[in-house]
Amino acid sequence: MLRLLSFALFLAIWWIAALFVGGAKLPSPPAVLEVMIAEASSGALFLHLGATLARVTLAFVLAMSLGSAIGYLMGRVRLADKLGDPWLILLLNLPALVVIVLAYIWAGLTEAAAIAAIAINKLPTAVVTLREGTRALDRSLDEMASVFAMPRWRAFRHVVLPQLAPYIAAAARSGLSLVWKIVLVAELLGRPNGVGFEIGVAFQLFDTPRLLAYSLTFAAVVLVIETLLVQPFEARATRWRPRAA
Amino acid sequence: MRLEVEITGKTFRSAAGGTHEVLAPLKFALCPGEVGVLIGPSGCGKSTMLRIILGLDSDFRGHVARPPQARIGMVFQEPRLLPWRSVEQNVRLAAPDVTEAKLSELFRILELEAHRSHFPGELSLGLARRVALARAFAVEPDLLVLDEPLASLDDALAGRLRDEIATLVASRPVMTLLVTHSLDDAVRLGDRLFFLSPRPARIVAEVPIGIPRDRRDEAEIAAIKAGLAQRTQGDRTERDVS
Fold this sequence. Notes:
The complex is a heterodimer. In chain A, 85% of the residues lie in helices and 0% in strands. Chain A has helices at residues 2-21, 29-42, 44-76, 78-93, 96-107, 111-135, 139-147, 152-190, 195-204, 208-237. Chain A is globular. The longest helix of chain B is centred in the C-terminal third of the chain and has 24 residues, at 218-241. In chain B, strands 6-7-8-4-9-10 form a six-stranded mixed beta sheet, with helices on both faces. Chain A binds chain B through residues 140-141, 143-144, 146-150, 154, 158-159, 162, 240-242, and chain B through 51, 54-56, 71-74, 76, 78, 80, 82-85, 89, 93-95, 119, 121-122, 135, 139.
């Protein structure tokens, strides 16, 4: 209820601002909705949204699985941490734009280049978070598992993974928001479809209603995924913890 | 099948860079069906010794011979349960082969039936300790190591758990190593008592108790305790004189 009210307030502010600024710079909500419906009925909206979502999914899964594995390794093995740390600092501070442009130059304007570039941008944050999580693992529970001769996989699944789950959830959440932002840049620069491409077109035509129609639909999709996927996972991973009042 | 412990020394390096001896040379052995009790002042190195015996610490001088296939049941000083698994899952994860009948029996004896599906965070320390005991018993161990298992339990429950440990030890040829501060527990449960010195720990006295556990009555227990008290006091005066 409170969420709805807050959303209504947002719409109201937008509408009032649109009246003051004028339709060319800030179109009113109905004008944007009109474009949304037109784009949806032609199918273009879904095509571009689908292309973007596919890229996000692929890059996200790639970066999360690779990043988690590297982060776990760096948290457990000192040598890996020493060897990997300079690379990590470099990657963390490399601007997203540089990675994307380089990827397109080296691998051409291809799908693989775009997805790899997005994944590389997300990778270091996942590594850092999971490394911290691995460092914080409770040694005394490891000892318990070893004394009771738990097989490796069972110990990993029941002793280690639940301790890492909050870190994985944190990495997923911050990673997802990062990937959402970077995917549009990658599409703008070198892809013939996707929300980022459409925003590029809208920019060239100074077509604000179109720009808002695409970005708001995109934001809505992000919101849905966040509430339906990320938050339930987080709640499940931490269900054994006593709730804050 | 025997547990043989022969430690010639163990040093810790402190953060400041200094080294200090935790364990002096010590040697003992334990046979199946026997309960060895380690008694010593706090901080004398008992836990370090247990970690070495359990194979958790290999940075020591000496040798520990454990039957290679021996199943170990361990009750740590803290319960060390998995907070994200229920009581029953905690036991089953350590003892996947435990039968439902055996599990129910254990939970009944330890009065945990009502808490099967609770998470450890919802239990009191006393209850969590009982879960740790259930877990150690459920694996049907060949080597049972108990690090102050009855601390912070009320007398009645501690007494019952002590009987439970005695029953388990009598029913199977299990080697048991018990660490305790309580002379009473030691005399009621132990077959051989090892008195340890302050750090670096060495065995000051090894006292076998000849009477089988199930035939020790209150009078005899009191007599053994009195004998031991005299003895430790004697040691103390001797040391004071020197």
